[in-house]
Amino acid sequence: MNLPPKVTDRAFARLAEIGASAQGQALRVAVEGGGCSGFQYDIRLDEPASDDLVLEQSGERVIVDQVSLPFLSNAVIDFSEELIGARFVIENPNATSSCGCGTSFSL
């Protein structure tokens, strides 16, 4: 059974900090073919499409297209701040391996 991805409070808070909803934007999380492990994440601000899954909290939105949903079943979308930088990260239980940078994975 495919469960929708979850979004942490920290990820929604970061979207509020950058003013995504004030600009009419949402965080799009998509899966594309490519990368060093076979699939890669595409994470960017975008406008929702009519068939996107919309996850919302306090007016901030994270959107996932229908093609990417099975790849992100039960994944956790978070925001991480470390000394080397800050970024949105995905903890994906469906990935059997991933590259060192965390943007590419295989199933």
Automatic annotation (TrEMBL):
Q: Name one GO biological process term.
A: iron-sulfur cluster assembly
Q: Tell me which domain of life the UniProt entry assigns to the organism this sequence originates from.
A: Bacteria
Q: Which GO terms describe its molecular function?
A: 2 iron, 2 sulfur cluster binding; 4 iron, 4 sulfur cluster binding; iron ion binding
Domain Core residue range list: 6-102
Q: What is this protein called?
A: Iron-sulfur cluster assembly accessory protein
